[in-house]
Amino acid sequence: MSDATALWAWAVRAYGREGVAETCLSLQDRDEQNVPLLLFGAWCAATGRALDDETVEAACDVARVWGEKAIAPLRAVRRALKAPLIDMDGDAREAVRAQVKAVELEAERRLLADLAALTGPPGAPRAPLPELVRLSRSWGGPLPRPVLARLAERLSA
Question: How far apart are CA 130 and CA 1, in angstroms?
């Protein structure tokens, strides 16, 4: 299994854990964090992959490009289609929304594949919180340490 496939599978399983989706959405919507980037950091910790300063910087650059040029615009369209709209058939709107969601998920999968390509071989597992804090700090904005700690706890459960 390639690192890209392994990271995607890990991220899907992790996101499905109790409380992880809600915590990730809070980090994304309230704290302006990049959830795939954070999941990448947690996966690196879980699999013992090193995240040196150069890798962290490159990971943030890759996540920023994917986020700004593909994921955020797709998310905006998906969210705009969530509520019923005047003069738009509800079934057609939902069908298009589902297609946009699928493309958004594919963009996130491709982002994770690009992130996985930045890492080296696995090693001894580590606690995820230091990596989450490091990536969040490099991403920018106020550091949401309590929410990152909650995410680390839920990913470690």
Answer: 27
Distances (CA, A) of 41 to 64, 67, 116, 130: 15, 16, 10, 9
CA angle 133, 137, 138 (to 5 degrees): 120
Q: 47-59 burial by CB neighbour count: b if 16+ within 10 A, else e? A: bebebeeebbeeb
pLDDT tens column, 12-25: 999 999 999 999 99
- Residue with structure tokens 């969040």? 136
Predicted confidence (pLDDT) per residue in 32-56, tens digit: 999 999 999 999 999 999 999 999 9
